[in-house]
């Protein structure tokens, strides 16, 4: 791969990573599903962030449902990514690894009272080029700093079960 092709691929890879975070904040199912291969399962390990969720393999739709069952219970979220490092597989230029830092703000506002939790984590993506676009095949999330109010995730999961407090998806 020449330098220009490598830079274009890196840009497309980071765009996919950013779209995933955007789709989580906006609860945008269509954008989220576009980040993955439509017929392959995703290898997911969030156990280094949320111990309640063991490593698993799931479809993109199952990932969407899991995200919505957690983040849908928050009033709002905002994820910021930085310090991304993209490494291409030397044996297969259609595969890449991304490691990036993420700061994720989550809040619940009820009866005029605001509670929040900020997660500082590292995300690692296994990426592959599929039909001219880069998609996520593996996702590992591990926290780099302890949570300041970890119980709020459990509260959000309970709120997401209640249609009255569930934040509605974009589509």
TrEMBL record:
SUPFAM superfamilies: NTF2-like. InterPro entries: NTF2-like_dom_sf (IPR032710), SnoaL-like (IPR037401). Gene3D superfamilies: 3.10.450.50. It holds the Pfam family SnoaL_4. Residues 6-139 form the SnoaL-like domain. This is SnoaL-like domain-containing protein. It comes from Zasmidium cellare ATCC 36951.
